[in-house]
Design brief:
6 strands; globular; alpha+beta; two-stranded antiparallel sheet
């Protein structure tokens, strides 16, 4: 297989660091393994962030997400770990990671974790008529 999963996240320079703007990504094929039963867990991961100097490179993000496929992890831990890893490499102004896990035993689980850079204040929302 020419491509393998990887825990290495790569970045590139933000092309517009002078502006607050939001990057939204949906990762619908996330899988990990339940650490109690060994059964697969499926989720859609939503990533929203306001970059500062760096943006995450998409192929490395795909390979990073793939690296969880056989890893036993609770939903809460895996969501927070992914956020921590992304924050470490991109140092964003703001980042929110949402893990929306498929039903397991009749229960859907959604975990939301956030990071806000110290001193960063979001711009006031614009309300249009």
């Amino acid at each position: 297989m020419p491509t393998q999963p990887s825990r290495e996240l790569e970045t590139f320079d933000n092309p517009m660091p002078e502006r607050d703007y939001t990057i939204h990504m949906e990762i619908p094929e996330f899988t990990c393994v339940c650490p109690k039963t060994g059964q697969p867990d499926f989720a859609t991961i939503y990533l929203d962030y306001v970059p500062d100097q760096k943006c995450v490179e998409l192929k490395s993000l795909k390979l990073y997400m793939w690296s969880y496929r056989d890893l036993g992890a609770f939903h809460e831990k895996v969501t927070n770990t992914i956020l921590d890893d992304l924050v470490a490499v991109t140092q964003p102004r703001f980042m929110r990671l949402t893990g929306k896990f498929n039903v397991r035993g009749g229960i859907y689980t959604t975990v939301v974790a956030e990071h806000r850079a110290e001193g960063w204040t979001p711009p006031a929302p614009v309300t249009l008529p």
